[in-house]
Design goal:
389 residues, alpha/beta, 6-stranded parallel beta sheet, globular
Amino acid sequence: MSLLFNLTAVQPIHSAKFHGGGSYGEVIFWAMVKRGEKFSCAYDSRKYLDPKIIDACKTGNIPLFDISEKTPQQIIDENGIDVFYTPLYSLEKKWNIKVKRFVLTWHGARALEMQYSPLGISFAKKFSQKAEALVRYRESWKRLYYKPKYQELAARLASGEAQAITVSEHSRASIKSFFPELRNANIPVYYSPMANEEPEGFLPPNVQSKKYFLLTSGARWEKNNLRAAMAFDELLPEIGKDELGFDFKVVITGVTNPKAYLKHLKNKDRFVLLGYVESKELEFLHQNAYAFIFPSLNEGFGYPPMQSMRYGVPVAASGTTSIPEICGDAALYFDPYSVSEIKNRLLQLLDAKIYDEYAGRTLGRYAAVSKRQSEDLEKAVDFILGNLG
C-alpha cells in the first residue's frame, strides 16, 4: 500500500495560521510517525508548515511532494499512490482526485449550519478575505456553492468511492441530516485527538494569574468572542465599583484586527488583545486563567474547553453543536447570540460556590474525554490504513 497524507490541511487557511482541523491533522501525522508507518505527504511550499514536521519527514524518509509544482492528481499518478488521506476536506477542484481509496475526516457541516453575519467582513483584513466574508454562509451561497460541492462528496461516500470518519456524534448526525443518502453509511465517530503541550511562558504585562477570563481564536468571527467581550464590558460598571479590588481582565488570543473589538468596547484598558501565541504559551494562559469562555457559534469538536479543564479551570460555553457533547456537565452553558446571557454566566463564575462546583467537575471530564481521545486516535489511524471497516 502506498499512502499520500495531505499535509496542506495542517497549513494556514483563510485568516488563521493555526486552526482546529490543522491541529487534528498534526496529531494524526505524529501518531503515524510514532507507529513507524510508511507514507508520503503533500504540502504547499508557499505556506507555513511546522519545521518539526519537515524535519520528521527528512529524518524518517517520508517523501514530501509540493503541490505548487505538481497537482495532487499528478503526484498520485506519477508515484503509484493507491490511498489518499486528508484530515480536512477541501472544496477546491484540485482535491477532487481519483485514487483507489480516498479517505477523509469530515469534521461537520459548518458551511451549511452557520448563519450569515456581516461581522465576517469587519473581522477580515485583506480585500480577498472581505470579499469571501461577504458571501460565506449566505443562503444563496450555500445553495449555489456549498451544497452542490458537498453533494459530490456525499455521492462518493454513498457509492463507496470514498470513506469518511468524523469527530463527534453531533457532526455525524449533522452530516446525515443534510445528506439523507448517507443515513445508512458507515461513518465512524472517533473523538478528535488533542496534542498536550506542557505550559511554558509568562503572562502579558499587567495581567495577574487567576485574574482574567480567557478567550481564544480571536481572528475568526465565528468564534463569537466579540459578544463575550461586550458582555464583560457591560458587567464592569455594574460590579467594578461595588466589589473592592475587582481588577479582572479579558485576554483574547489570535487577534489580527484589534479594531474589530475595540470599536465596540468602552473599557478598553480591561482587554488584552494578543496576536498568535505559541502552543506552550497558550497552555500557560489556559493554566493561569480564572475561567475560560467559549462562545463559539459552531464546533465539530472543540478543543479549547478541554485545554482549560486539564488545569481545573472552570468553563462557560455555548450550548450549541458539539460543545455540550464534549463538555458534558462540566461547563456552564449560554445562548451564544445573547450578550445578556453570557454576562449572566460571567456573574455566576464570580460566585465562589458556583465557581468551586464547576472547577471540581473539570478534571474528571477532562480525564474521561482524554481517555476516549487516546483510544480513538489508534482506531482512526487503523481506519486510515484500512485495518478497520
